[in-house]
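Quick one, T. Sequence first:
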Amino acid sequence: MDTDTLIDYTAFQLKTAYCTQRSRAQSVNFFLRNDKWDKHFRKAAEICVSNGFKPSLFMEVQFFCNKPWPAITALGSARAKACYMDKRKVYVDTVRTAVNVQVEIYEALAKVRDAEELLNDSNLDFDPLFRYLVAEINELHETADRYRRAAIMEYTLCSEYDSMYGGMIPEWLRAQAQATRGSVVEGRDE
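Structure tokens:
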């Protein structure tokens, strides 16, 4: 996985999450019309990638900590990271709940439909990491390959998945995520 691609992807997710949250806070459709703020979202993306923070959760915490909304220029700051670290337990529980719901839905539907059909059903709200892991367990290699890249991104951006999926996470995926996070930390220090 190319680190710059992951940071760009994460910055886009953060910008989208910011606009969504700001729209809710202001009760209007809010969107950024130009790219002058992109450097701030990129700094926030570096924090997310290097620490394994899920971008949507990172942004939710920023809005919680900074009423009525956070300054875009502060999103990549040490204060933003500290705020997330302080409040993340509550938000990580939402990720844990989402994982548990995916498992329950999959197990219920697997009684009447086969695994490949379930994993490829776009109407089911399974995240890419879940789809990849279940495909690997069921030896559905084509399906696993289809979700591999997105699963890498998902896992790299949420270090808490280790406590949720445990031994299901392949060692190569752990190593790749750690290397990506480490390269961002190294890149920021240069």
